[in-house]
Design a protein that fits this description.
Elements (H helix, E strand, L loop, with lengths): L6 H50 L5 H27 L65 E2 L6 E2 L4 E3 L4 E3 L4 E3 L4 E3 L4 H21 L1 H6 L13 H30 L4 H16 L3 E3 L6 H9 L46 H13 L10 E3 L18
Parallel strand pairs: 7-8
Antiparallel strand pairs: 1-2, 3-4, 5-6
Helix pairs in contact: 1-2, 1-3, 1-5, 2-3, 3-5
The structure holds zinc ion (2 copies).
GO molecular function, one term: protein-cysteine S-palmitoyltransferase activity
Pfam family, one: DHHC
Membrane topology: Multi-pass membrane protein
Length: 397
């Protein structure tokens, strides 16, 4: 029987459709405005750098220049270098473009030891990776290390391409992105597996740059308000006032963002996963279980793997230069934490959240303690919750 939709139901369908339209428009605007944002960012960091050397560094004594020389060279080198890299190195994709057109930027994700941007060119070589499976370092998805994952790879609902664990579909880029963190208009692209290192380091060096302007240019900033003060710089006084005020604003906002990202990295999660993990943690708590993030190998190891340092990685000195350092994972398999050996309290009631049941099953089959599967811990599996893009929350639909 064909009954017409009740008015309330009809209205809600209409509202949802409207939201979808607005969402699509927002995605389109984000994509279209991307190049403007990148241009603006170059103008801002370029103008800021020029004003600093023109107005502030001009006043420094020889001794001051000598003492501050590491700051005066490394900050601009890394700020411009990392921004160039974060806008050129692609985030990494599990499949080629759907249009069949070749990816021009894909070369950045391959080994280029001859390139001036490669660590190898400057003598930074990767250390031998001991023990990648089992033990405290965590085991890779499969037992054979990256690439040999024994798990079935899902397909993307939107682009129908392969969707390895931690991959998400970006509705602005219109394709799947490996270990997607978020879509960033300031770089006109996604932040993911291959460029997140550059993204975080750029924020850190940008913060240092802003603080340098604020700390060393304080007297000059005061001078801009006085008509009598001597002004030899090419930069007009009003220009420097503007640069200084922007540096205060950016020097507060960006370090907060950078710290937040580093905090998430230290927990072994991306921006998208942090939403999911918070949700799962709450649900698990309600069931009397303890939720574990499978990619959390401990604060130190998470940071080491993210920057690809420490055992099996590169030298920590690579953080001081704008170099392309390949990620520790290939994006198809990631090291996972083992289940704790201590047994937590078993919940007596049956599970009310079906999402947790899936994680429990995963913990039982993937954990080292298969026999005592119901140990009170529940491990997230393969990010099956967030099947959506940017910012997470896709579990709601
Ligand atoms: Zn996709
Ligand atoms: Zn994107």
């Amino acid at each position: 029987m064909n009954t017409p939709l009740p008015p309330m139901k009809y209205a809600s369908v209409l509202v949802i459709r409207c939201f979808k339209k607005v969402e699509h428009f927002a995605d389109w605007i984000t994509g279209a405005a991307g190049p403007v944002f990148v241009f603006l960012c170059w103008v801002l960091i370029g103008g800021g750098g020029f004003a600093f050397f023109d107005v502030v560094a001009r006043d420094l004594s020889y001794l001051g220049l000598l003492v501050l020389s590491p700051l005066l060279t490394l900050v601009p080198l890394n700020m411009y270098g990392q921004y160039y890299l974060v806008t050129h190195v692609p985030p990494g994709y599990p499949a080629p473009k759907a249009s069949g057109k070749e990816d021009k930027d894909i070369k950045w994700t391959m080994a280029m030891p001859w390139s001036v941007w490669s660590g190898e060119k400057w003598g930074f070589t990767k250390r031998e990776r001991p023990l990648t499976s089992g033990g405290v370092l965590g085991s890779w998805g499969g037992d054979e290390g990256p690439g040999e994952t024994g798990r079935r790879v899902r397909r993307c609902r939107k682009c129908d391409g392969p969707k390895p664990e931690r991959t998400h579909h970006c509705s602005v880029c219109k394709r799947c992105v490996l270990q997607m963190d978020h879509h960033c208009p300031w770089i006109n692209g996604c932040v993911g597996l291959y460029n997140q290192r550059h993204f975080v380091l750029f924020m850190v060096w940008l913060s240092l740059g802003c603080w340098s302007v604020c700390g060393l240019g304080y007297r000059r900033f005061i001078n801009t308000f006085s008509y009598r003060a001597e002004w030899k710089a090419y930069t007009p006084k009003i220009g420097f006032t503007l640069v200084y005020v922007l540096c205060i604003a950016i020097g507060v906002a960006v370090p907060v963002l950078a710290s937040w990202h580093l905090y998430m990295v230290s927990k072994g999660e991306t921006s998208i996963e942090s939403h999911d993990n918070a949700y799962m943690e709450k649900r698990a708590q309600q069931e009397g279980l303890i939720y574990l993030n499978p990619y959390d190998l401990g604060r130190r190891r998470n940071l080491e793997l993210f920057f690809n340092l420490g055992s099996g990685g590169y030298s920590p000195y690579t953080l001081l230069f704008p170099l392309v350092i390949p990620p520790a994972s290939n994006g198809w398999a990631f090291p996972r934490r083992p289940l704790p050996t201590t047994t937590a309290k078993i919940p007596t009631s049956s599970l009310h959240a079906p999402e947790l049941a899936e994680g429990l099953l995963a913990a039982r089959t993937h954990g080292d303690h298969a026999e005592d599967g119901l140990s009170g811990y529940v491990m997230g599996d393969d990010g099956s919750l967030t099947d959506d893009d940017e910012g997470g929350g896709g579990w709601m639909d």
